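Retry 2 of 3 after timeout on previous attempt. Resubmitting structure tokens to design endpoint.
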């Protein structure tokens, strides 16, 4: 991959959980490579400290940069673990750990369940652009997903960490081992079911994000770090307005009545992903618009915890 020109289209993405927060866990191509879409690194986000020197002439004052933050945004396709028994952890579950999820727990004979945590771990993230290596340490992330008719459902990840002392290196990554990834299927009536408050609403799209409040902390003494202060899951559901005699969602608005939602994507064992939000509440202004002559409702929702760390549950089976 070496060359005088850094080819943007040639990328290798590695990520590994840190044993000690902020200490490079040195991910390797054999076990830590991710298959991602639309990768966009953030080279740096630093603060300039200007030395306002009084002088007898005009001109700029010198500046030193501090608080070097760094990260990346990328997407991952939603799919199962690839084994009919359903007990293989899909690789995207590993990628969601810095966004505040556990590692995925085998449940029963045919599923792996992943739930949120209140103490998210940190990861080291290496992004190779050709042979240009950008390292991020002590990274945590925000998370979201999008499911839309006739498109591939995806997870959306935005990492934030800190840059090591060396901002960029030149190194050939080698050939990554991309293992455990399964070809996704389109969201459709054939492949996907959606139930909101016990009713199979006609779904256009469902988007959620954990709204992670990621804060960069810098003090004299301890190492700089990124913390997650909160993660209020919220999003938007777009459905065709049902006949009110079949289902009236509008009666839920004034009293703040909560509802359960479940989406099951895929119908072949080993390539099924299920999303459950057991306690959704309508928390914004519902709008009704025209789509091809049909009334469509856009419903802002927030996922509330039931017993804690259970407001959004991901299952691979």
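Retry 2 succeeded. Sequence:
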């Amino acid at each position: 991959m070496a060359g005088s020109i850094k080819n943007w289209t040639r990328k290798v993405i590695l990520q590994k959980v840190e044993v000690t927060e902020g200490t490079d866990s040195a991910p390797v191509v054999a076990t830590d490579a991710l298959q991602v879409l639309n990768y966009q690194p953030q080279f740096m986000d630093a603060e300039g400290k200007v030395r306002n020197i009084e002088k007898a002439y005009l001109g700029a004052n010198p500046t030193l940069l501090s608080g070097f933050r760094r990260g990346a945004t990328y997407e991952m396709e939603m799919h199962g673990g690839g084994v009919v028994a359903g007990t293989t952890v899909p690789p995207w579950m590993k990628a969601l750990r810095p966004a505040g999820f556990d590692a995925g727990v085998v449940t029963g004979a045919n599923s792996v369940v992943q739930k949120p945590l209140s103490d998210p771990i940190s990861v080291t993230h290496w992004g190779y652009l050709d042979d240009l290596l950008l390292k991020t340490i002590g990274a945590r992330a925000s998370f979201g997903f999008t499911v839309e008719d006739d498109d591939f459902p995806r997870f959306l990840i935005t990492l934030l960490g800190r840059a090591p002392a060396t901002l960029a290196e030149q190194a050939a990554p080698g050939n990554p081992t991309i293992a455990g990834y399964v070809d996704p299927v389109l969201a459709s009536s054939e492949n996907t079911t959606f139930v909101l408050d016990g009713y199979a609403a006609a779904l256009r799209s469902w988007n959620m994000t954990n709204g992670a409040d990621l804060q960069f902390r810098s003090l004299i003494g301890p190492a700089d770090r990124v913390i997650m202060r909160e993660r209020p899951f919220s999003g938007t559901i777009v459905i065709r307005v049902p006949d009110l005699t079949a289902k009236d969602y509008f009666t839920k608005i004034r009293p703040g009545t909560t509802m359960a939602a479940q989406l099951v994507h895929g119908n072949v064992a080993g390539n099924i992903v299920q999303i459950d939000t057991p306690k959704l509440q309508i928390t914004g202004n519902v709008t009704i618009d025209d789509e091809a002559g049909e009334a469509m409702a856009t419903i802002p929702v927030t996922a509330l915890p039931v017993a804690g760390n259970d407001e959004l549950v991901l299952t691979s089976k």
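Attempt log closed. The CA atoms of residues 54 and 61 lie 9 Å apart.
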